[in-house]
Amino acid sequence: MRHDIWPESLLVVRHGESAGNVARDVAEATGAPMIDIAQRDMDVPLSPLGERQAGALGRWLGGLPEHEQPTVVYTSPYVRACETGRLALASAGLSGRVAFTVDERLREREFGILDRLTRLGISDRHPDQAEFRAHLGKFYHRPPGGESWADVILRLRSTLDTIGRECSGERVLVLTHQVVVLMFRYVLEHLSEEEVLAIDRQHEVANCSVTVYELEEQPRPRLALRRFNYVAPLEHAGAPVTTDPDVPVAHS
Fold first, then answer.
1. What number of other Cβ atoms are within 10 A of residue 193's Cβ?
2. Is residue 1 situated within a structural domain?
3. How many CB atoms lie within 10 A of CB 177?
């Protein structure tokens, strides 16, 4: 089988803590139906802590042996993901030395009419959707105007085809979002709905955590999982580890 359609390694990173994460915490703590944030979700920036986390991630990347450092970056177009990538590359000393591609297919899951609502807000304003989600489960439930996990998987498969075609032999760093990190696992490891939901129940994907895949040629060429939700880069740099969902996933 051909192995020249695979990157040498794939590092999938959730963005640093955002201002939306902070606003979500306030809304949930006060019992508010909506998360109080003025920007579109795609325009929400990193919080000051998120900037520290991105810097810590970059110092870890810069400390890797040169033959393990990323050579290509793909990022979600959302501001918090792009900021994480640029701050990390600057801290690593890699700015201008790696290809930096913004790809809309790596964006956060879209939540349609449920966007910015807390759990309470969903129950109060859209009880039918709360009922549908409880029946279908988060893997298949698609809120009006939004996406299910399965919808995210469809665009992620296309993204992986592009990475395979354009990044043979490269070391690829991906900056993306909580749900998308889990969907990488679903696609690359050929998981079932039950298996990926079990991972979701057992682990909160941390901000700036690293999930690492490396090319394994036997018994067949594939990207094999080496680390999941790895937070040592933050811990070693003294940056707090945060796991809060993004703004629209308050109901996940």
1. 14
2. no
3. 25
d(CA 90, CA 111): 32
**DSSP class per residue in 43-77:** G--B-HHHHHHHHHHHHHHHHS-GGGS-SEEEE-S
Tell me the residue type at 82: C
Distance CA 90, CA 65 (A): 17
Report the domain count for the chain.
Answer: 1
Is residue 251's pLDDT more than 50? no
Assess if residue 142 is contained within a domain: yes
More confident residue, 27 or 39: 39
Q: Is 203 a domain residue?
A: yes
What lies within 8 Å, CB to CB, of 1 at 6+ separation is 220, 221
CATH of the domain at 113: 3.40.50.1240
Structure tokens of 184?
């990488």
Question: Whole domain around residue 57: which residue ranges?
Answer: 9-251
**pTM (global) more than 0.85:** yes
Which spans in 114-231 are helix H?
A: 119-125, 127-136, 149-166, 178-188, 193-202
